[in-house]
Amino acid sequence: MSIQDWIKNEVDTNDVVLFMKGTPSFPQCGFSGQVVQILDYVGAPYKGINVLEDDELRQGIKDFSNWPTIPQLYVKGEFVGGCDIIREMFQNKELQGVLSEKGIETNQQTA
Amino acid sequence: MPMNANEIETLIKAALPDAQVEIRDLAGDGDHYAANVVSESFRGKSRVQQHQLVYEALKGNMGGALHALALQTRAPD
């Protein structure tokens, strides 16, 4: 399986996927850590994938999304954004809205 | 090699001539910046698409020479 196929499979088979540096319990970059904190705060279940474990993956995800930086958040197969976008969406409650619209259970159901 | 704020602004304006660009050096180390970009070309586009326009303007420096650029984009009010 090519790395692009592998990424596509992860994104298609997991509702919320975070490509990050480090792991959710041990982020190794401040930007990845911020997104982890946000996802933990809203209580969304997600799968963290550590790009530092594989150079091919680290480059592959940038090509896959046409996005130059990590972290990258996918919800139901759709690229939502990197750290700045996720933070902005979290602050104005848009992220919580997107999650609940897509049927992801969080601890902050929006009305 | 880090980039300086002027280089970043010049690249963004070369690609988005109408853009108002505001850059702050976050850590004072010439390596961590925040950029606020306002341009008509963002109108009607998603945040991801808006940021991608800026990343394209930076011609491959984002994620490389530019390790840390916090980005905020919007169309003019």
Strands ordered across the widest β-sheet of chain A: 4-1-5-6
Find the structural class of chain A using helix and strand composition. Answer: alpha+beta
Shape of chain B: globular
Oligomer: heterodimer
Give the end-to-end Cα distance of chain A, rounded to a whole number of Å: 42 Å
Can you give the mean pLDDT of chain A? 94
**Secondary structural class of chain B:** alpha+beta
Number of DSSP helices of chain A? 5
Q: Approximately what portion of the residues of chain A adopt beta-strand conformation?
A: 15-25%
Taken in chain order, the helices and strands of chain B follow as HEEHE
Largest sheet of chain A: 4 strands, mixed
Question: What's the total number of strands of chain B?
Answer: 3
Low-pLDDT residue spans of chain B: none
What is the CA-atom radius of gyration of chain B, in angstroms? 12 Å
Describe this structure in words.
By secondary structure, chain A is of the alpha+beta class. Chain A is built from five helices and six strands, in the order H-E-E-E-H-E-H-E-E-H-H. In chain A, a hairpin with a 2-residue loop joins strand 2 and strand 3. In chain A, helix 1 crosses helix 3 and helix 2 packs parallel to helix 4. By secondary structure, chain B is an alpha+beta fold. Chain B has two helices and three strands, in the order H-E-E-H-E. In chain B, helix 2 links the parallel strand 2 and strand 3. In chain B, helix 1 packs across helix 2. The longest helix of chain B is centred in the N-terminal third of the chain and has 11 residues. Chain B is globular. Chains A and B meet through strand 6 and helix 4 of A and helix 2 and strand 3 of B.
Per-chain topology:
The complex is a heterodimer of chains A (111) and B (77).
Chain A: H1 3-13, E1 16-20, E2 22-23, E3 26-27, H2 30-42, E4 47-50, H3 55-65, E5 72-75, E6 78-81, H4 83-91, H5 94-101
Parallel strand pairs in A: 1-4
Antiparallel strand pairs in A: 1-5, 2-3, 5-6
Helix pairs in contact in A: 1-3, 2-4
Chain B: H1 5-15, E1 20-25, E2 32-38, H2 47-57, E3 68-74
Parallel strand pairs in B: 2-3
Antiparallel strand pairs in B: 1-2
Helix pairs in contact in B: 1-2
